[in-house]
Amino acid sequence: MPNLQELPRFRDGLSYLYVEQARIEQDAKAIACYHQDGKISVPASSLALLMLGPGTSISHAAIKVLADSGCLVNWVGEEMVRYYASGLGETRSSQNLLKQAETWANPQKRLQIVRHMYGMRFEEALDPRLSLQQIRGKEGVRVRTAYDRASKATGVPWHGRSYQRGQWGNTDPINRALSAGAACLYGVCHAAIVSAGFSPALGFIH
Length: 206
Description:
By secondary structure, this protein is an alpha/beta fold. 38% of the residues lie in helices and 17% in strands. A hairpin with a 6-residue loop joins strand 7 (72-76) and strand 8 (83-86). The chain is flat. The termini are far apart.
């Protein structure tokens, strides 16, 4: 291309698109979403992330067009809450993943990352002699204090964090709201980590 200014700017494209209850097929150099109300053409070259929700099917040809355009494809739950899997986007390089694995596998570097991450959560500096288990303990105290402070500030009764996966209805509405919010946040973080070329499986704190 003789003039690089002719290249489309990332901010001029579509940051993401969520689709559910539809069929996606190739449409020339783009893709088309077919649903009960008709057809919607989507320029794949300007799309950064396509999230496929429940009831969505996509053809092999459409996936190829998206891959050639550098669009990341994620398979997610209803309303983008859950995150199940992803295809390749522009982060096809393994550079970030290799750096993450190298740091994760080195106990000293891993602890440095943990201290840095926790250091952003505490007002005071962490004692360098604290172990990971002790830091986790301090984090637990900080979170419990934050819940108690929020309860007093808002007047919403708080009796402690209570959550059991198989007994959703046995907890109070506040705990259910926290669990639902956390599930949404996990899904967003999972998608962000993968889109940056890292692995959510290599955790530093947990």
